[in-house]
From TrEMBL:
Required co-factors: Zn(2+)
Residues given in the record as ATP binding sites: K273
Locus of motif 'HIGH' region: 31-41
Domain Cysteinyl-tRNA synthetase class Ia DALR: from-to ranges: 346-405
Complexes and interactors: Monomer.
CC cofactor note: Binds 1 zinc ion per subunit.
Organism, as annotated: Kribbella capetownensis
Protein name, entry field: Cysteine--tRNA ligase
Keywords for the protein's UniProt record, in alphabetical order: Aminoacyl-tRNA synthetase, ATP-binding, Cytoplasm, Ligase, Metal-binding, Nucleotide-binding, Protein biosynthesis, Zinc
Family: Belongs to the class-I aminoacyl-tRNA synthetase family.
Residues that bind Zn(2+): C29, C214, H239, E243
Annotated SMART domains: DALR_2 (SM00840)
Length: 478
């Protein structure tokens, strides 16, 4: 099958044809680093990590650009509240962002440009927009520069709106605008903001508008036309609409496909810090393992809303543990196999159908079910094929427990791994000796003691195997 993706612009699933054969350029909007990312933020990272893995598995050379917005009004406001420099505040939470997508097994972008590192490119874009009659300097002497939406008849095509039906944002500053819906390309410096958060420009000192930043960085690294622009559905308007307008207004074709992942909600409402319902990634992975959180997010179709709850998260963790259990047991029986070079055709068809992960997971679980039946007969070519297929599918989804980054990580972590493993194995040897001499009371006592410590023991034909029980907590806001 040919890969088909849903394009927000055309509101249809279309055949994917890259600008340059064999190569794919992706830009997806990174986080405004105002605070620690929650699950809703990191969902986009996971979605586009799966897209990248599938494209590479399909033979494409993929370039991923994901920006960091490190200068923005919310960053200035929150850093002022904390009494720290805005740049220190931004860097602190940029590092938290990196930690979050790394802990969930997301590969870093090919390049991750910061907005503050691309001011010259932004000024160049503003100048060209002014020259073409699509932008103007505010006449009030503020130094603000705005995009004139009525100068661009196509404005609204991405979000399928007409200009006259749009309303200005409630928090929009109307000063110096021809139309209240015009958006800022440049914000003139004011005394109530740090001077370090401004740069010289032909219109006066100031800082870039949020929408301008992405157009400048996407163009610099991916060219005037590239394959996929992505982000959360909440960015479609006004952010992506404004990006599209200012980029095409200077003659750039910009993105061939617009991909938007659905939102993560809690109690039916968008997850956000302002609502106080954000499940911070660093806290959630104290409840379940990071690989289990990733499983929870990937199993839904990227255009379907994910209703976040800890009950659903715990259930997903159990689902992954069943898959992981097969991989572990089959590896013990067979001695291990490499991931399959050729995946089940139904899995490939599902992924080619707009990244249909629910159907892909159905193929995965069916293969695990069949593989579990084969385990009773010991090592066999059929079991090896099943294990190879499962590992191949898990690799595309970023969930193979025997591949990096998961293979080198441990639930107990760090330098204690070998020590803990040795101590548990010593106790299991004592338990086995007790069983052999029919001292079942001693055997059960050892098992109960391990269980109390959070160590789960499973007796297999190859001998006892241990794992850590999933952590639990009664505080759902932690």
């Amino acid at each position: 099958m040919t890969l088909r993706l849903y394009d927000t612009m055309t509101a249809a699933v279309r055949d994917f044809e890259p600008v340059h054969p064999g190569k794919v350029g992706i830009y997806h909007c990174g986080l405004t680093v105002q605070g620690a990312p929650h699950v809703g933020h990191i969902y986009k990272e996971v979605v586009f990590d799966v897209l990248r893995r599938w494209l590479e598995r399909s033979g494409y050379e993929v370039t991923v650009i994901a920006n960091v917005t490190d200068i923005e009004d919310k960053i200035l406001a929150k850093s002022a509240e904390r009494g720290v420099p805005w740049w220190a505040h931004a860097y602190e939470f940029e590092r938290e962002l990196h930690w979050s997508y790394d802990v969930l097994g997301c590969r870093p972008p090919t390049y991750e440009p910061r907005a503050t590192g691309h001011i010259p490119e932004m000024i160049e874009l503003i100048d060209e927009l002014i020259e073409r009659g699509h932008a103007y300097v505010a006449p009030d002497g503020s130094g603000d520069v705005y995009f004139d939406i009525r100068s661009w008849p196509s404005y609204g095509e991405l979000s399928h709106q007409k200009i006259d039906d749009m309303e200005a944002a409630e928090d929009a500053d109307p000063r110096g605008k021809r139309d209240p819906r015009d958006f800022a390309l440049w914000k003139g410096y004011t005394e109530d903001t740090p001077r370090t958060a401004s740069w010289p420009a032909p219109y006066g000192r100031g800082r870039p508008g949020w929408h301008l930043e992405c157009s400048a960085m996407a163009g610099k690294y991916l060219g005037d036309e590239f394959d996929i622009h992505g982000g959360g559905l909440d960015l479609r308007f006004p952010h992506h609409e404004n990006e599209l307008a200012q980029s095409t207004a200077v003659g750039r074709k910009f993105a061939r496909f617009w991909m938007h992942n659905a939102l993560v909600t809690t109690a039916g409402e968008k997850m956000s810090k302002s609502m106080g319902n954000g499940a911070i990634v660093r806290n959630v992975v104290q409840r379940v393992r990071p690989i289990e959180l990733r499983y929870y997010l990937v199993q839904s179709h990227y255009r379907s809303v994910v209703e976040f709850s800890f009950e659903a998260l715990d259930e997903a963790a159990k689902g992954f543990q069943r898959v992981e259990g097969f991989v572990t047991r089959a590896t013990e029986v067979t001695g291990g196999v490499e991931p399959a070079a050729e995946l089940p055709s139904d899995f490939g068809a599902a992924m080619d159908d707009d990244l249909g992960t629910p159907a892909a997971f159905a193929v995965l679980h069916n293969t695990v079910r069949d593989g579990n039946k084969l385990l009773a007969d010991g090592d066999s070519p059929a079991l090896r094929d099943a294990l190879a297929a499962v590992r191949g599918m898990l690799g595309v989804l970023g969930l193979d427990p025997l591949a990096e980054p998961w293979a080198s990580r441990s639930d107990v972590g760090g330098e204690l791994t070998e020590v803990v493993d040795g101590l548990v194995k010593a106790l299991l040897e004592q338990r086995q000796s007790a069983r052999e001499r029919k001292d079942y009371a001693a055997s059960d006592a050892i098992r109960d003691r391990l269980k109390a410590l959070g160590v789960v023991v499973e007796d297999t034909p190859q001998g006892p195997r241990w794992s850590l029980a999933a952590p639990t907590t009664t505080d759902e806001g932690s």
